[in-house]
Design goal:
By secondary structure, the protein is an alpha/beta fold. It has two domains: 3-253 and 343-364, Aldolase class I (TIM Barrel); 256-331, no CATH class. It contains 13 helices and 13 strands. It has helices spanning 32-40, 63-81, 97-106, 125-128, 145-159, 181-184, 191-209, 224-232, 242-245, 254-261, 285-291, 317-325, 349-364, and strands spanning 9-11, 14-16, 20-22, 44-48, 85-91, 111-115, 137-142, 166-169, 175-176, 215-218, 237-240, 268-272, 278-282. Strand 10, helix 8 (224-232) and strand 11 form a beta-alpha-beta unit. Helix 2 packs parallel to helix 3. The longest helix is centred in the first third of the chain and has 19 residues, at 63-81. It is globular. It starts with 8 loop residues before the first strand and ends in an 11-residue tail after the last helix.
């Protein structure tokens, strides 16, 4: 296969053969299995830290230690399976955000993707590798040019350093969304509309710091043609999450993956998450019960999210997502992107990326590469 037909993604001294970042998916959907498989195919594989320790036996007693232990183990496992690029997704809203950031750097993650909040205050030694710690590439996730501008301006002023890249995520993404309900379906907030603004916000910092800072487009990207369209619009790469759930290597239970395969367009709904944000999910009996007023009293021993008031939450979203990850869908639900209904089979990571490459080549007008069918 001629991978040169799709541009490489460069983040500083890191380079991937395909410009595809596998989006981080908690709780436990993207761990070392999926991340290493994507990295082995030339993309950036990403481990999600959200709720990563919830399956540890001592999580209820010491969630910080459990999360830290589980993250370190998953990074080590990924490193044993691949020589490719491994990233870690960390929500800024996590109460153990700094612990997870330090663990990612210490265990040799190549990149950390920071979302669900503005990552303004960062341990400065991580940016330069001081004090014997390994420097790590830092890529914030934003949903507007204004957010990107705030982050880059703060870093430039306080650290004399800027992020190595930025992900701009549009409203067609799965999971928690960085948009108000009224903006989710507003064409003015579509990825195609906000991408140019983020590129423009980053460009002056490329010039002043003398380095390339790729903007990675995310949210609703489904096909190779979508990849081509966003690269032509100026993106340095794309982030895809939903497509990778329906792969054999995904770390979720088979029943979770089947919810994607069986999803219809009308099954995709916007919910009000207990953490105070809208989110896109696949409608099921659990969510229908919640919409009818179902409440399960919560005793929260850990307070994992800064934005979650467990005293007012109808259910624990961490527990619900963990149940779903394990295939217990009557006690949880699956977050999913707006194009989930277009998935009709579970495949391998290799076949999926081969298919995306073929579609990309068709979109460019070049001869398609030969690929195996998705089945």
């Amino acid at each position: 296969m001629n991978l040169k037909q799709m541009p490489k993604l460069r983040l500083g001294d890191l380079e991937t053969s395909v410009p595809i970042v596998q989006g981080g998916m908690g709780v436990g959907i993207s761990l070392s299995g999926l991340a290493s498989a994507v990295a082995n195919e030339g993309g950036i594989g990403v481990i999600s830290t959200a709720g990563i320790g919830m399956l540890e036996p001592d999580f209820n007693r010491n969630f910080r230690e459990a999360n830290n232990r589980a993250l370190r183990r998953e990074i080590k496992k990924a490193r044993q399976k691949t020589q490719g690029v491994i990233g870690v997704n960390i929500m800024v809203a996590l109460t153990d955000f700094t612990d997870l950031l330090l663990a990612s750097a210490e265990e040799g993650a190549d990149i950390v993707f920071l979302g669900a909040g503005l990552p303004l205050k960062i341990p400065e030694f991580l940016l330069s590798g001081k004090n014997g710690r390994r420097a790590v590439k830092i890529v914030p996730i934003v949903s507007s040019a204004r957010a990107a501008q705030l982050i880059f301006q703060y870093w430039a002023r306080n650290y004399h350093h800027v992020p190595d890249g930025v992900v701009v995520e549009g409203p067609l993404a799965g999971g928690h969304l960085g948009f108000s309900r009224e903006h989710i379906n507003d064409p003015e907030y579509a990825l195609e509309k906000i991408l140019p603004g983020v590129i423009a916000a980053v460009q002056p910092y490329e010039e002043s710091f003398g380095k390339s800072i790729p903007v990675i487009a995310a949210g609703g990207i489904f096909s190779g043609a979508d990849i081509y369209r966003h690269l032509e619009a100026g993106a340095g790469g794309v982030q895809m999450a939903t497509r990778f759930v329906a792969t054999h290597e995904c770390d979720a239970a088979p029943a979770f993956k089947e919810t994607y395969v069986n999803c219809r367009q009308e099954d995709l709904v916007i919910i009000d998450s207990p953490v105070g944000l809208p989110g896109r999910a696949i409608k099921n009996k659990f969510l229908e019960m919640v919409s009818k007023g179902f409440k399960k009293p919560i005793k929260c021993p850990w307070k994992c999210l800064k934005t979650c008031d467990f005293t007012k939450s109808p259910y624990c979203i961490g527990a619900a997502l963990t149940n779903a990850k394990n295939g217990i869908l009557d006690k949880g639900f699956a977050f999913a992107g707006a194009n989930t209904y277009r998935i009709n089979a579970i495949t391998t990571v290799k076949k999926l990326i081969d298919s995306l490459l073929s579609e990309y080549n068709l979109a460019t007008g070049k001869s398609p590469v030969a690929v195996s069918p998705l089945r």
